[in-house]
Design brief:
- The chain is about 40% helix and about 10% strand.
- By secondary structure, it is α/β, with parallel strands linked by helices.
- It has one domain: TIM Barrel, CATH 3.20.20.
- The strands form two sheets. Strands 1-2-3 form a three-stranded parallel beta sheet, covered by helices on one side. The chain has a two-stranded parallel sheet with strand order 4-5.
- The N and C termini lie far apart (about 45 Å).
Length: about 160
Amino acid sequence: MRRDRFDDVDAMIRALRPSYPVYCIHPGVLQETARRLLDRFPGRVLYAVKCNPHPKVLQILYEARIRHFDTASLPEIAQVREQFRDAGAYFMHPVKARAAIRTAYEVYGIRHFVVDHPAELRKIIDETGGEGVRRAPPTTCRRSSASCLRKPPTS
């Protein structure tokens, strides 16, 4: 795999003339954005692996102090656990297969699960025994508490 560096996207396109998708990663932008969010948001920040699971992207975010990852599948959980032994992984898919719950719990040590329905809670308790499990109910964000996340008004 080529790992060339280019001054900008146009230079990359001219040089490679790719006929396939190409990752253009801007480490400085990722790090600065992550640090700004961590500095301004008072709660725990989770990066949703599904947004961009590229190992380099996750590494850059980890180096910027992101230590918690929103995972929605066993492959995402495995990726986080294998790449970062000390990172938190949260099983955030709203509907999980029983086997996925059990594997996440037993193999990967997942203890945080999102729950938005009593039936899903029952599955998690059935498959894990409930010991050490923490559930994260979906929440709504009040406008006043989300000022750091709100987009500025457009004119």
